Amino acid sequence: KTIAAAGNDGRVRLLDVTTGNITKEFVSVPLADAKTLAEQAPDTNDHIVRADVVKTLTPEALKKGAKIASLEVTPKTIKLGKPTEYAQLLVTAKMTDGTTADVTRMAKITAKGIEAEISQRGLVRPKSDGKGSIAITVGQQSASVPMEVSGTKVAFTPDYIHDVMPVLSKLGCTAGTCHGSKEGKNGFKLSLRGYDPYYDVTAFTEELWSRRANVASPSHSLMFFGVISRESIFAPFFKASGASALATSARTM
Fold it and tell me: How would you class 50 by CB atoms within 10 Å of its CB: exposed for 0-12, middle for 13-18, buried for 19 or more?
């Protein structure tokens, strides 16, 4: 006697009831060849793509007559270990009269001894591994923050909680007016504001006969085609965000 069992890896296994050994296994649906999949699939590469949205900053300046006695920078040291990690600097000026002011957007911030991309708002993103420092200058005052970076060349492995949930939250998918409502929406329910990620992962991967998440071919999952179609209300978001949100979710599966 033989019994058939299917797992969440998309394969069907035939087991001998007497011995419990697997006599045969196969995928439940025919798979296209690699070339065909590459032509049809959305871009799900490992590159970390960020939306290039830069807002022009209004020039800032200290009040007339204010003199800076010293600078205080937070954090005191920067240590990053993943390709997606970054550091936000906060530069505080201590005035001669005892007051303080946020001068982050007035400061000249440069990287020394290490490659890094630094925004006008003091956001530091490393480009390569290594050790160096971040130099901060405001007027005649200056400060330095040691920086150590590793892991930038390691393949990006997304995490549902850290990488996918923010996308769902930004789109409002887990809000009470959408799939996070008591009864869900259109037969699909997620936990309100993502408070139960285990439930949400199960909803994506196991409900609806596992059609929402195709583990045999992640880029052909229903959850992708539903949101990137031209008729979808989310299409503008993915167009503005490039392939990052889509690739992150695909790589997670």
Answer: exposed
In angstroms, how far is CA 8 from the centroid of its own chain? 24
pTM over 0.70? The answer is no
In the block, tokens 């793509």 appear at: 49
Could you tell me what percentage of the chain is helix, strand and coil, using 3-state DSSP and rounding each to the nearest 5? Answer: 25, 30, 45
The residues pairing with 92 across neighbouring beta strands, listed in sequence order, are 72, 102
Q: Which of 172, 179, 246 is nearest to 207 (CA)?
A: 179
Q: Is the peptide bond before 236 cis (omega within 30 degrees of 0)?
A: no
Angle at 28 between CA 196 and CA 186, to 5 degrees: 40
172 Cβ partners below 8 Å, 6+ apart? 178
Judge contact between 194 and 178, C-beta under 8 A. Answer: no
Q: What is the pLDDT of residues 138-195, one digit of tens each?
A: 989 999 999 999 988 887 777 888 888 888 888 888 999 888 998 888 888 999 999 9
Task: Enter the tokens of residue 149.
Answer: 């970076």
Q: Who contacts 181 (Cβ-Cβ below 8 Å, separation ≥6)? A: 189, 192
With beta carbons less than 8 A apart as the criterion, state whether 57 and 80 touch: no
